[in-house]
Amino acid sequence: MMASSYNAKEEDGHVAVPVGGTIKNKKPDNTAFKQQRLPAWQPILTAGTVLPAFFVIGLIFIPIGIGLYVTSNNIREFEIDYTGTDIDDPCFNCSQSFSWNNTRPCTCALDFSLDHPFESNVFMYYGLSNFYQNHRRYVKSRDDSQLNGDINSLKNPSKECEPYARNEKAPIAPCGAIANSMFNDTLDLYYVHPNGTRIQIPLSKKDIAWWTDKHVKFRNPGNNPNLTAAFQGTSKPINWRRPVYELDTDEENNGFINEDFIVWMRTAALPTFRKLYRIIQKKNNMTPTLPRGNYTLEVSYNYPVRSFEGRKRVILSTISWMGGKNPFLGIAYITVGSVCFFLGVVLLIIHHKYGSRNNSADIPN
Amino acid sequence: IQSDGRNRLPGKRRTVVARHGSHQHEYHNISKGYHGNRIRTTKYSLLTFIPMNLFQQFHRTANLYFLFLVMLNWVPVVEAFQKEITMIPLVVVLIVIAIKDALEDYRRYRFDQKINNNIASVYSGKHQTYVDQHWQEVRVGDFVRLSCNEIIPADMLLLYSSDPHGVCYIETANLDGETNLKQREVVRDLPQQCSELTPENFHGRIECENPNNDLSRFRGYVEHPSKVRVGLHNNNLLLRSCTVRNTETVIGIVVYAGHETKAMMNNSGPRYKRSKLERRLNVDVLWSVVLLVIMCLTTAIGHGLWLSNLKEAPFLITDSVSPALAGFYLFWTMIIVLQVLIPISLYVSVEVVKLGQIFFIQNDKDFYNENLDSRIQCRALNITEDLGQIQYLFSDKTGTLTENKMVFRRCTIAGVEYPHEENGEKSNEKHVAPDRLLVQKLNCLSSPLFLLRDASMELTYIVDFFMALAICNTVVVSSPNQPRHVVCNIVPEVSPTKLKSLDEIKMLFQRFGLPRFSALSPPHNTGSPRSFTRKYFTRRKATSFRSGELGSWKGIEDNMVPLNVGDMSRLEISNGEQGSAGEPGADELIYEAESPDEAALVHAARAYGCTLRGRSVEHLLVELPGMGSLAVRLLHILPFDSTRKRMSVVVRHPLTNQVVVYTKGADSVIMDLAESPKSAERSDSMQGHIRKQTQKHLDDYAREGLRTLCIAKKVLEEEEYEVWLKHQVFAETSIENREELLMESALRLETNITLLGATGIVDRLQEEVPETIEALQKAGVKVWVLTGDKQETAINIACACRLLRSTDHLLTANCGSKVDVILLFYITSSPFKFRSRHPYICFPNPGLVYGCTLDFALQDDLKDNFLELSQHCRAVICCRSTPLQKSQVVRLVRDKLRVMTLAIGDGANDVSMIQVADVGVGISGQEGMQAVMSSDFAISRFKHLRKLLLVHGHWCYSRLANMILYFFYKNVMYVNLLFWYQFFCGFSGNVMTNSWVLIFFNLLFTSAPPLLYGILDKDVSADTLMKLPELYKSGQNSKAYLPSTFWLTMLDALYQSLVCFFIPYFALNGSDADLLSFGSPINASALLIILLHQVIESHSLTWLHAVVLVGSALFYFSFTLVFSMVCVTCSPPSNPLGVDKLQMSEMHFYGVCALTTVLALIPRLLFHALHNTISPSNTLKAAMMDQFNPEDYCKRMQRWNQTQAQTNVKSLITVEHSDIMIPNCDFRLPEELKEFGTPSSPVLS
């Protein structure tokens, strides 16, 4: 069936009619290329030739692995689940009574304590589990030109956004399932001073999105400073409580260029993911960003996860040159390096046992 | 007329009338449907190219699959990518193929244009003269005038020739490669034969067959206004693309033009064969399909289950599709997503690789032949790798193993053997050193001291013998300064000739006139020899030959022309090589013969002063020793054919003036035809003696490996001749059954002939044939020789080329009846059955099968026995085999044993065998181009086969096999990455890569390296491959591409994809990585793994590899980088902006890539290292030897050969001598070859 080849040369050939009696010397050129004598490196993989590579890999990988492992261990990370699946959980009530159209926010507070101080900038993430932001149809359900500020697309969203393109004739801005399902919990962090006072920790929402997204990919329509006018005639996504031009009061963070929105729109690769929510800037070198002690997390619980057995978390983490905390890479490097080293030893033994035989005069048959 | 015409040529006739003649008014009606002379071999025109080419391309399943995917992507519910993206592979493939087709077609177009615009001189009705026209304007019914060396523009009926005898010569080299001249005759009995033909006066109406492709047949007739019909046959037809030679002007009327000419209708073009590897490949493509279906089903079911477990989720786009239906849709989506798994581009790549391989084969300087200025021709473009898998080689003998340059070696005349001792190795076909004894005997004739009483009957035999050698042929004579001109009009000087001796010779012939009984009652000339001579031998000034009336005695004067016998003692002076050349320098003669044997014999005769000096239609000019040049009236030529196995000429003997038939043919035939002793009681002892002696000498010759030919003579009584002549003329003029009648007539003539003697012609082995055969046998190729020659000759040649060794046991099957054959197989099979229980014992039995036995052996019920027996033989030689038998043997072996066969031959008789074999190799040599035309590869020497198979075959096979495996690996490895991702995206058919990158990954980023790998990879150097033929066995056993290697590769691909997916997965799980940031390190490491995998698999890396590998990697990284910076909204569903730019600025990315790449490649590296160290293959050991310095290399090479020899000795057990004889069945088992004595009495009866 697949057998039909491209070479079916059914065409007829010519009878060669050498009209002119010219005698051509058909002797092929004696070049290294045409005679297939190009100088070549011929790698022959035997225990003898391969074992240095294994040792070298082992020797390089183990230190790298140790370095990565140490780096990863130095990262402070704290994670708290606030889904509220158990009846004892502070957010249990909120999670039970849910409706997208709920106008009265349900709030709950979680207490936790940090055993170690967080010295550098702390990144605050929200994490979702079992949330398939990478579902094919979900991923497609957006209109990039609309988000890029195209007026035309604003009024006529791409059909990829269906069924979240229009709400009773009015085009939805931003359209599509991704925007529609935007994470809308608000999280506040309080430091409980040993004397009992709650100090709200300032959370910066600047620079949580990629610079290219914020400045190139996402644009508000029509360069109109008045967003209300710019979004005139559009409808808010069905699940949203506020229209897109009311996401923030800061004009630089409103509309399509709202950073929370941009972060959400960059769909996660795996069903368990975290997204950057806020950054806690280090104030000075004297005090840690988050000192040791007790904290309270206040959640305005809006986002439903119960229907798909999802989990919601808040993660506080510092980062290093290798990114966030993940001991896997370090361990993997150490393991692979060790395995390579071990294999190198095995090859060395084999090389001594067989290799000499090959190099000696006798060719086994 | 028409109804009559219908009766004669039922259903298929065409009428041709002159375009500008008296039939002008009906010309248009008649020739409405006839093609013009314009040819068009192109497939497309400018307008039709796109639709036609597309139509043709979509005949291919692979393209249909592509199209199906594109269509599928247009269905909204299953749509996986943007519509344009799925079209890219299809468009790319279509464009690549279309460009290739267009270039080929353009080349054909240019060629057509060139041909169509050739100029021919065509009669124009308007100008009343011949004007130059383009070939394409020539129409049926046109009169075309051609000069010497012009190419014939269309099939024409020859109406006029400037030659006084109404013949013209054409060279058909363009048609069949034969360079000898062929004679064509003017249509007989035309009214204006003498004066130049005027087209206006041609009123004939030509009725002939409809166009067909039979080159050797043409039937029809011309009807003159007087209702007289003249038969037309093949000899009247000038074929398109032949060249007019030796004739000043010819005029013909076009009967077939353009595509209806025989030359065009014979154009079959290159052939398509499917290689064994490709068949294997197709099986694995089917496995890929199975794999694809399994993967898609898994995903589809997974998606259905996943959906049914979810009630409501914000990431679900709710529609009313049930999970089952969604799963069904997803199945098709996945087919689009995973389409790369079916390696469609593999077919294009394989084709490109084969073109590259052919480029290198054609450019190998070792295949260049200085003498012919020819390279190897690859006519089949797609079976290069089959060259590396040949298991059985079937070879022709003559011209293939041997030079087919016949050299006269020795002869026997009248029962006396002349060994020609001086005629050693240095002699060639042109220069024969004469035998001293024979020269002495002949010298009597020319010696002034010659006395009649010394003469013996033997002398007449000798003269007749050489006379026969000189004239019993179809050799055309020309001289270098007058190329290809018939030397018939030599004006000899009148010189004082020594007619004394001529008279005496005459008397001699009178005395011992042959046949002897005719000498008892001499026919007409009863007068004294002297008066006879006076009467018929008149000195005269011969100017030219006129055609005399048939059988008229008046012409005799013309016939007997003693010429220039000046140098009587020539032979004495120069019995060296040059002496035979006769006349000094200026007019050295060139003989153009149809077969090399003929030329050899003519040259041999010339060495004894019996020189053929010229030929016209009715005369032969022969120089005889002591007699000068004589013109011999040629009455008839009965040409050679394979059924009669002989040829004859009927001449009027210049000396006796009798009608004499000289016959030359295969010994078996002539010996049977030679008159039986009974018919001539008087000389029974004499003839019987000659017969006996000659037979003995013939056997000796055959044993020596000489080709034997017998020469015989017959003298016809005038009445006898008249009777025969009537039949012959009737046969010649009849239109129906012409061939049969002519054959019958020939048989009637060739009876009761007198044996004169026999010749032994040596056909020397081509250079390096023994070495080549030895190497091929070492390489595990079973060599069979299929020859039409005799058993003894065949054995001899087989010994000479080391196919047989002197210690070999020879099993000869030479049975007369089927029962014997059955018996033979029964007896011989028993020891072999014994053998099969002891697989280590090997009988090095070369088998030998005689033609007639072969017939029985090929019958259905004995086939298997024959094969079983032959499998135990190291070599098989089939003697006396016909072309049909040859092809039957090849087919039998190919089909029953399921092995790869190669047939090599040079002549027309090998064509069927060449076509049947998996690989057909033609040798472009002496015997025309037919074998080459039907072959897949055409080489010029047998020795080229060694490099072609051992080096190029080995390379092509291992390269292609490895490349195909690599392709499968590459696709499975990459596609599995997408498959694993399905487990983490709800089986929704999503991919973690930008779809552009996804499509280009296979099409651009990783396509060039495997191509280079397939064209340039070199596991072992050419030198080593030539020196160690054993290495060929790896290809024969398909070592490089076994099902196990395929599945091993698949497993490795699976492992690599797992590593490549899950290392990034664990490194990024739970992080804030978005879809493309997750895909980026996976893609990058997949690319690195795939490229480095190739480095591991490669056996040789040149700077080209480095360029392509590094180039591919750079291309990928720069492409993604640029894409991530430029593409803002260009690729809607995915979101590449900034991703790769960001990724490539992070250490994490490189950390992941490095780890993944290393971990993925470790097992393969380890496997190779362990396998190569613990049990290295022969190929690898050879490759290792390549790396030593020359000294060590030599040492190792020696040691290798020693060990190989030892192992061979170990497996060889000699069989006890046991000679089983069965009545009526001549076979021996086993027999020492050196004891091979005189063959027992002929079994054929």
From TrEMBL, chain A:
User: What is its subcellular localisation?
Assistant: Apical cell membrane; Cytoplasmic vesicle, Secretory vesicle membrane; Golgi apparatus; Membrane
Give membrane topology per the record. Answer: Multi-pass membrane protein
GO BP annotation list: phospholipid translocation
Which keywords appear in this protein's UniProt record, sorted alphabetically? Cell membrane, Cytoplasmic vesicle, Disulfide bond, Glycoprotein, Golgi apparatus, Lipid transport, Membrane, Transmembrane, Transmembrane helix, Transport
Q: Name one GO cellular component term.
A: Golgi apparatus
Could you say which protein family the record assigns here? Answer: Belongs to the CDC50/LEM3 family.
Where it mainly occurs, coarsely classed, is: membrane
Membrane-spanning ranges: 44-70, 328-350
| Keyword Glycoprotein among UniProt keywords | yes
Q: Which residues form a coiled coil?
A: none
Name of this chain's protein: Cell cycle control protein
InterPro entries, per this entry? CDC50/LEM3_fam
Automatic annotation (TrEMBL), chain B:
**Name listed for the protein in its UniProt record:** Phospholipid-transporting ATPase
Cite the binding residues for ATP.
Answer: D396, K397, T398, E598, F640, K664, R707, T787, G788, D789, R880, K886, N909, D910
Predominantly, its location class is: membrane
Which species does the entry assign this protein to?
A: Esox lucius
Q: Where is the P-type ATPase C-terminal domain?
A: 932-1176
Compartments in which it is found: Endomembrane system; Endoplasmic reticulum membrane; Membrane
Q: What is one GO biological process annotated to this record?
A: phospholipid translocation
| Keyword annotations of the record | ATP-binding, Endoplasmic reticulum, Magnesium, Membrane, Metal-binding, Nucleotide-binding, Translocase, Transmembrane, Transmembrane helix
Which reaction does this chain catalyze? a beta-D-glucosyl-(1<->1')-N-acylsphing-4-enine(out) + ATP + H2O = a beta-D-glucosyl-(1<->1')-N-acylsphing-4-enine(in) + ADP + phosphate + H(+); ATP + H2O + phospholipidSide 1 = ADP + phosphate + phospholipidSide 2
* Chain sites annotated for binding Mg(2+): D396, T398, D906, D910
What Gene Ontology terms describe what this protein does at the molecular function level? ATP binding; ATP hydrolysis activity; glycosylceramide flippase activity; magnesium ion binding
Query: What's the top EC group for this one?
Result: translocase
Cofactor(s) needed by this chain? Mg(2+)
